[in-house]
Structure of CBF1-interacting co-repressor CIR N-terminal domain-containing protein:
Amino acid sequence: MEGEEGEGLRLSKRFSSETSKSGEVDYKAKAGTAWSHSYLNQKPWHPLSYPNQRRKWIAEQTHANHLRRSEEVAREACL
């Protein structure tokens, strides 16, 4: 195990043995893609997804109505 090449940390860019001397990186061997924002927006926990924005708006409106009603009740109770 000791002294073997290729062991250790794996990098996202792969260096081939022929190109490592010239400093070139082999991008064709790299697998995977970057995450896009539209992918994250489809997650149920993401705050920018449409259903979550709708739920938040409804909750804000309900909270504002409760505050307004409680202020009205407090004003009427003082009279």
Notes: Residues 48-78 form one domain.
